Amino acid sequence: MMTASFAIAQLGLLVLLLDSSNSFSTKSSSPLLALNLKCTVKPTLRDKWLIAIQENQHCTRLTEPNNLQFVIGQDIDDPNTFYFHEEFASISAFQDHLDSAHFLKYHEFVKLEEPFVETPDMCFYHPREEDEDALVQMKRAIHKDSFGLNVNLYPKKDVRDDFLKVISNNKKGTDTTEELALQYTYGESISVEGITNGSANTFHFHEQYTGKNHGKEGFDMHASMPHFAAWEEFVKTDPFEKDPEVFFFNIIEI
Q1: Strands (E), the chain
Q2: For the segment 110-121, what is each residue's pLDDT rounded down to a tens digit?
Q3: Cβ atoms 151, 245 nearer than 8 A
Q4: What share of the chain is helix, strand, coil (3-state, %, to 5)?
Q5: pLDDT band at 22, cuts 50/70/90?
Q6: What residues contact 72, with CB distance under 8 A and at least 6 apart?
Q7: In sequence order, what DSSP letters do the residues of 13-29 get, joined into one string?
Q8: Cβ within 8 Å of residue 127, ≥6 positions away
Q9: Closest of 13, 208, 23 to residue 124, by C-alpha
């Protein structure tokens, strides 16, 4: 996962890309672009930041037809730590977002206020095994009060194929058999030329669940399913280069 320079990461997105002369390219054939982001906000600036990001989120969803999703979640333990998941129809759609008036306004707020405790973490990936035609036709809804998680996994090179088979089975089972599962999105880390180098065999996930207890019911149901049990059996084989990173949050509509 990429850790951007502080000046870039303060924006919650890649500020270097604000220059319209910058061009994007990635090493994947999929046109869809997803990003996950984690940031911790200074407690004294939390309310002001929430107002600023609310406007950015609202305007992005309202005025950018090629923005497919913009989700913000609050950490289940730390009220000042937040997670984003965003999806765009293409790299150029993300560039359009960075050039938009509402993003530039947010950029100015962050430059002046410096609301973050430390450098946010951000990663880019192309969602795998998705119906891209369907996704670009309609934005994903914001499911307020749902339970979310962003995950980073680092499988060893020699188990990559087995890892992908187990993950594919988990996604298929989640998407087709779980009534309380709202989303299971994953993809491999990608390079954005001139900005960041992706890491082979690094995979990023965004999942959402609904139900009682702010959606935790849906996640607990997911964890009881046969396809998840198969995943747990795979994990017992010591398949990772380094420990998985799992971040749980409550999705908010701010």
Answers
A1: 2-3, 33-40, 67-75, 81-88, 121-125, 147-153, 181-188, 203-209, 245-252
A2: 999 999 999 889
A3: yes
A4: 35, 25, 35
A5: very low
A6: 53, 57, 82, 83, 84, 251, 252, 254
A7: S-GGGGSTT-----S-S
A8: 30, 32, 34, 87, 185, 186, 187
A9: 13
